[in-house]
Amino acid sequence: MLDAVREAARFASEHDPTVFEGPGAGGFCLDDKLHFYQDTACVIVGAGFNPDLILDPTRDDVTISVFTIDNNIITDRLPNDGDGVWSLYGDNWTRNCDGTLNSITPFLTNVEIQNIFNMPPPTVGAGTPTPGTAPTDKGRVLVEVYYCHEQLLNLPLISQLLPNPVPLHAYTFMPAPAAAPTSTPLPSPTP
Question: Which stretches does DSSP call E strand in 98-175?
């Protein structure tokens, strides 16, 4: 599961999160057009990357968020839909495996992500970076999978300690240069 999430984040890091060329003749995952969020999710569910990871659309989910960080402050979280989380299966990420509401806030909130960027660099050891040398303007993409894993044997001793299914969550945070703030407008394509 973690490898699939990492591969999807790698795909997302190379593409522009504002691009949606519309579905082609074959639909999402099967055409040559770019639909940033859908195609990123297709790396997990539609590319056969991990045939053993089959997501249930009624309880599992793939979520994607894109961050613009200006001077180490989050200035934008895409998609701009209120919570900043794109969901493949209609907000299943907010629910437990049994369908009850778990949380309406993202697993990694803007405050938690902001704290990551405000952490001081390590101060001991060879090769310690000089404070203030890391870029302060950046773009990042967060890809998450929420998966309800059925216990294979469902042994009574284990099932007393762990629910069945067991909720699993994997995420990867990658650079997304297309989401980085720019001080000059990007050139528009010539017709």
Answer: 138-149, 166-175
